[in-house]
Amino acid sequence: MKGFAEAFWAESLKARKSKILWITFLVFSFIAIMMGLLVFVANNPELVGDSVVLSAKASMIGNADWPGYFELLYQIIAMIGLIGFGFVISWVFGREYVDHTLKDLLALPIPRSVIVLSKFIVITIWAVLLSLTLFILAVVTGLAVNIPGWSVETALHAFYIFTGTALLTLVLCTPIAFLASYGRGYLLPMGFIILIIIITQFIVVGIPGIAPYIPWAIPALFCGAAGPAGPFIGTASYIILFITSIAGLMITLAWWRFADAR
Amino acid sequence: MNDIIITENLTKYYGKVHAVDSISINVRKGEIYGFLGLNGAGKTTTIRMLLGIIRPTSGRSYLNGKKVHAGNHSLWDKVGYLVEIPYSYPDLTVYENLEIVRRLRLIVNSSPVESVMEKLKLSPYRDRKAKDLSHGNAQRLGIAKAIIHNPDILILDEPANGLDPAGIVEIREMLREMALQEGVTIFISSHILGEISRFATRIGIIHEGKLVQESDIDHLESSLYRRLQVKTDDTDGARSLLLKKGYTAAIEEDFMEVSGKDAISNPENIASLLVHEGYPPTMLKVEEEDLESYFLRVIEKNGGAK
């Protein structure tokens, strides 16, 4: 692919030099550490004394052991993943409009599609590293606060479910790239993410029968966030998810190729 | 083929607004084409169409004989451009911004980054973030990005914006040298005729989306209005005399303005006549219209400035 290495280099430099990169890692690290501390509080309620708020938060965790802790982690990646990855993708695409640098990318000896694809590759690497940070720090914090019930098998199974949930969440972010390009900035994609979170919550809780056919509800169902009696996801769900992801990618490529950049 | 930049009836409508209306331009190799118009006249829209950044509603354009469209990326190998205010990545340094352009322009050798910084006097700001640059240096960075790959065609939208007078002269000389010595074809937009006429070889004036005048710079010089201004102690008497002799004369404040080719090319005849008839002139001078009034006159003839 002509110019891919150069475009990838440029995109990764822009990401590496941005404050946003470090802010996202700080937020994901903070969440991981807070999760571990919350489970620690659930196991040691006397530590918070009369604090109603902290007790209530800690009691949200079902079983304060490693399987329960990992279940909380799945839910976190399904929700925070969408917000975090969505934020990253909104920034990577939206910043070209907000910083008015888009025009410098449109008349180059490199096809525009290569620029778009290199942005997606950088986003993927960024999201994978964020997910790994969340998982590793959550495990380290869990071990540090001595959560009961640890086994390597439980951790490996959890890593499989966690990775699957993170990847399914990530691939569903492609339409957000289009919205950042169409909306020329961050507002439209971030508004969309909030809307999606609200809608999927209503659907998973209110009308769980259709949840397997709503793309953004599928990662939550995959990791079992809807509970053991939650709807089953089959091939049709994965096809819907795949089509949504490809459609997001294609429409973003088409927008960069055909739309007027005013 | 000698025409390097060609537009054929290039047109862009935004709803009912005719941003650019049927513009046809040919720019020859090594020519500096000054594209002049007021703000909102359609200069930037034309330039964006020339660069394939926006699609024309109708018409087409060619650079180096190749049709411009967004998918024709090989076209941009030898084209440098600057559109409107040159923005750069704010958190990246001058060097990093140029390094990105070098790589995206597929330049293998890294030396052009240092040499273009040297050329645009940006070396002292090499490690300064783009967001901390002055307006003038941000403009220089924009120009550096446009010329880093030694383009054959340079398309510049108001490149003098934000530069101080010394910077304007410096950039003008650099562009003139590129055109004269390296044969670079330059298409440059501006809203200041006085500035552009100092180095352009041809001028096109755009108004309300239409190309209202196109001329070589020499022809432009000869198109400027010249007026003979005469002051005497008895302006009314002198005017009656000149009218009687077939001249056109109008009173303006405390002097007369005498027009007609003969009056302007031979003001000494007017002087002799007035002295001979007892109206000796206390002032007699040929006043040439400045370029800005010429520009506004051309525009007014075509509907006026709005």
Written overview of the protein:
The complex is a heterodimer of chains A (262) and B (306). By secondary structure, chain A is an all-alpha fold. In chain A, 73% of the residues lie in helices and 0% in strands. Chain A has helices spanning 4-16, 19-43, 52-59, 66-98, 112-144, 152-171, 174-182, 187-206, 218-222, 235-258. In chain A, α5 (112-144) runs antiparallel to α6 (152-171) and α7 (174-182) crosses α8. The longest helix of chain A has 33 residues, at 66-98. With 306 residues, chain B is α/β, with parallel strands linked by helices. Chain B folds into two domains: 3-222, 3-Layer(aba) Sandwich (Rossmann fold), CATH 3.40.50.300; 226-288, 2-Layer Sandwich (Alpha-Beta Plaits). Chain B has eleven helices and 14 strands. In chain B, a hairpin with a 2-residue loop joins β1 and β2. In chain B, α2 packs across α3. Classes of the chains: A mainly alpha (262), B alpha/beta (306). The A-B interface holds A 3, 6-7, 9-10, 13-14, 17-19, 99-101, 103-112, 257-258, 260-262 and B 48, 51-55, 70-71, 73-77, 79, 81, 83-85, 87-92, 96, 99-101, 103-106, 145.
What's the short story on this structure?
With 262 residues, chain A is mainly alpha-helical.
Question: What labels describe this entry?
Answer:
heterodimer; A: 262 residues; mainly alpha; 73% helix; B: 306 residues; alpha/beta; Alpha-Beta Plaits; 4-stranded antiparallel beta sheet; 11 helices; elongated
Helical fraction of chain B equals 25-40%
CATH architecture of the largest domain in chain B: 3-Layer(aba) Sandwich
Count of the separate structural domains of chain A: 1
In what order do the strands lie side by side in the largest sheet of chain B? Answer: 6-7-8-3-9-10
Return the CATH class of the largest domain in chain B.
Answer: Alpha Beta
Average of the residue pLDDT scores of chain B: 90
Estimate what percentage of residues of chain B fall within beta strands.
25-35%
Structural class of chain B: alpha/beta
Q: Quote the average pLDDT of chain A.
A: 90
State the low-pLDDT regions of chain A, or none.
none
